[in-house]
Amino acid sequence: MVNQQSKIFQAAPFSPPLEPWKMGNIYEIHTYTVHPGSIPTLIERWQDCIEDRIKISPLAAGWFTTYGSLNQWVHIWPYKDMGERSKLRAEAMKLSNWPPATREMLLHQENSIVVPASFSPLH
């Protein structure tokens, strides 16, 4: 083994409980690395507008790191397919308060589209 990473996440107050149920055929995972100390403000800004956003599509998870690579914010959105993703994201962008005003906090952003494995409790 050349490299290994471990991370422990804590759910944001508005993150739904992670339970075995199929939410989508694909999941979009956003990982943001933010300035040290900015996670509480980021969560506060998300909390102010997440209710409007989840009326369009559900949030699978909103987590921040507490161990490992610190200062990371991860949010996961389920979709039926890429077409639904495009449609719902366009609808969300019409909201006056979405996305939350957090751009100044970002140092790095990674986005992934994943398909759950056949044995996944989210499949």
Automatic annotation (TrEMBL):
Domain of life: Bacteria
Domain NIPSNAP: from-to ranges: 27-121
UniProt similarity note: Belongs to the NipSnap family.
Protein name, as recorded: NIPSNAP family protein
Organism: Aphanocapsa feldmannii 277cV
Origin organism lineage: Bacteria, Bacillati, Cyanobacteriota, Cyanophyceae, Oscillatoriophycideae
